[in-house]
Amino acid sequence: MLEPALSPTPLIDCTDEALARTGVELRLKRDDLLHPSVPGNKWRKLGPNLSAAVEQGHTRLLTFGGAYSTHLRAVAVAARALGLESVGLVRGEELAGAPRNWSLRAAEAAGMELAFLPRSAYREATGRGASGASGGTAEAELQRRWGPCLVLPEGGSNALAAVGAAQIPAELPDLGERDVVCCPVGTGGTLAGIAAGLPPGARALGVAVLRGGQGYLEDEVTRLHRAAYGREFDNWRIDHDHHGGGYGRVPAALAAFAEDFERRHGVALERRYVAKLLAAVHGLAAAGAFPPGTRLTAVVTGLPDPSDEGSAP
Ligand SMILES: *Cc1c(COP(=O)(O)O)cnc(C)c1O
Q: Does 3.30.2130.10 match the CATH number of domain 59-148?
């Protein structure tokens, strides 16, 4: 299979004075070190899906993503490592004729065949279209166009992905009542897995990195729990107050926080998810959201990309 560079990933203490004053401990679970090109939660979520693809005899993976999708790059690299073909449907037909950005170039370099779709067709293909066609109908359509393939959802979050992410808390020793395991939330697959993998008493906190996800993201996590485990869990919640203005937005205060954190702790921070998560955790702690004695474990779900101005080693 796709071997991890490091397993289990390191757990490092990151409690600074401000946190210590509130009686809160912070650790980082360095999942960014899992794999250099299938990093963090992408590796966790793809693992069981890749095993299923191979078991079911698939020779081709198909998935979706935006112009800078980490998920697309990860699928491209993982597919190649397993000798599978991959197809990436990219949101935005205008990108077809434009010079490839670094992210799409990396996906293509790993052997992924890209096709560019207008936004409405993209939504239909992902099963979220205005026609109301279900995911199943959309998938049948894709199989007709692209031949037999394993279709992975946008962002890679399905039931198997949640099962993969449940390995994260399984690598954390001695979790109990005082523990809160924190992660960023894009589609919710990582949070769903973490919550499902926690022992009784411990809780999960997700920080939404996009704006206006209230209700929708909670429903997604619940849907994944039902699909993967046939039940719901009540040990998690999503914070919707630290999205920094929306997906991909990095306000000046967040950038400054990230640079300061990198300088103090020597860990380079991916900005759109990881820096937002850590800023949120610090903000919540300062506001007294966690009782003294709480031990927070923030999952570093990915690596900085070339647009992140990290200066840490
Ligand atoms: C893709 C990604 C996420 C989003 O995870 P979900 O499971 O979709 O919620 C979080 N962090 C990083 C670094 C990512 O690349």
A: no
